[in-house]
Amino acid sequence: MNILVTGGAGYIGSHTCVALLEAGYSVIVADNLCNGKEETLNKVKQLTNKDLTFYEIDVTDDIAVNTIFSKHEIDGVIHFAGLKAVGESVERPLTYYNNNVVSTMVLAKACLTYGVNRFVFSSSATVYGDNKVPFIETMDLLPTTNPYGETKAMSERILTDIVKANPAFSVSLLRYFNPVGAHESGLIGEAPNGIPNNLMPYVTQVAKGKLEKLSVFGNDYPTVDGTGVRDYIHVMDLAEGHVVALDHLTEGVHVYNLGTGQGTSVLELVNAFEEANGIKVPYEIVERRPGDIASFYADASKAKRELGWTAKRDVIAMCRDAWRFEKNYME
Ligand code: NAD
Ligand code: WQD
């Protein structure tokens, strides 16, 4: 089966390409390389000893997208391509709405035109807003505080409406919690441009000596130790979740949380990193980061019940694998 993976040269997409190739799928990647590297795809091939097809295109470009659909017999689409920096989305809303929402519409339209009925979408736990924890798929979505989150909520609604009008179309909306870590080989992983916004890449860069110390954003939240709690999920568990979601896809819209169901505080993550890798991570407590919420984690029971999927790798494995990648990574 041929799967079109948009954003396959990026962080989660590249790990999912590995999982798909290992599961026997053929992979066609469409990526404009705005935040991905062709070199990563070479590493995917090296890791799996399998080939894949790569198109350097923008997936908001319907002519370019249609060219791929007309050249290949595509059986399903996994749509990762998107911009994901929350702060940047506040400064450049049009760029975010255009990139993340138009791409979803262009791809869905191509699917309908070419009779492709399987569509897996990268959504985010951010669509739950400030709901009560644990977040469960049946909750009403609350407004998010930034355009990035809105692009995910809008894409979910657009895909849901398309299914209502086209009952043969099958969509899986996967709401990721906090993806971290890297492939066990250390060959592919997360390599953000500039100073990282997210906790784990910040920690690995402090451990490497690229950054002096971690700023812990607040220790006065109502949590186990006052620092923010999140549901970190190993990127390979997430990647495998996509393969399972694709395998199980049936008509209609299916929403799944992909998380572990376990909350970990910032200081617990720092301690786990130090324990896993025997390296100190200097930190200081600073003010809360505006827009952060105290704590969120998944109710992960639906994916287990319906897909038979649960995350297998623990926080120590996430820290070990994230560090193995960072240690070897050369910009
Ligand atoms: P990433 O930036 O590493 O990967 C995204 C890839 O998409 C990049 O390779 C980029 O070059 C490509 N891309 C972006 N816009 C494109 C376009 N218009 N046409 C073609 N290619 C384009 O990000 P990631 O962390 O791998 O995230 C993948 C998806 O998962 C995104 O949709 C993101 O919003 C979503 N997501 C990520 C997280 C997270 O914390 N990493 C959490 C929840 C959801
Ligand atoms: C985790 C915890 C911070 C950095 C973001 C997006 C979300 C999703 C995942 C895409 C929080 C604390 C962080 C630092 C810190 N992305 N922290 N010092 O904010 O949960 O989610 O990425 O969909 O939409 O908002 O992740 O890694 O930034 O923060 O203390 O230098 O670490 O306050 O408690 P977040 P994060």
Q: How is the topology of this model organized?
A:
Blueprint: E1 2-6, H1 11-22, E2 26-30, H2 38-48, E3 53-55, H3 62-71, E4 76-79, H4 86-91, H5 93-114, E5 118-124, H6 147-165, E6 170-176, E7 178-180, H7 199-208, E8 214-217, E9 229-230, E10 232-234, H8 235-247, E11 252-258, E12 264-265, H9 266-277, E13 283-286, H10 301-307, H11 315-328
Parallel strand pairs: 1-2, 1-4, 2-3, 4-5, 5-6, 6-11, 7-10, 8-13
Antiparallel strand pairs: 9-12
Helix pairs in contact: 1-2, 1-8, 3-5, 5-6, 7-11, 9-11
The structure holds nicotinamide-adenine-dinucleotide and UDP-4-deoxy-4-formamido-beta-L-arabinopyranose.
Name the descriptors.
331 residues; binds nicotinamide-adenine-dinucleotide; 13 strands; binds UDP-4-deoxy-4-formamido-beta-L-arabinopyranose; two-stranded parallel sheet; Rossmann fold; 11 helices; globular; seven-stranded parallel β-sheet; alpha/beta
Write structural notes for this entry.
The protein has 331 residues and is α/β, with parallel strands linked by helices. The chain has a domain of 210 residues: Rossmann fold, CATH 3.40.50.720. 41% of the residues lie in helices and 17% in strands. The chain contains 11 helices and 13 strands. Strands 3-2-1-4-5-6-11 form a 7-stranded parallel β-sheet, sandwiched between helices. Strands 7-10 form a two-stranded parallel ribbon. A two-stranded parallel sheet has the order 8-13. The chain is globular. The two termini are 35 Å apart. The model has no long low-confidence stretch (mean pLDDT 97). Nicotinamide-adenine-dinucleotide binds next to helix 1, helix 5 and strand 5.
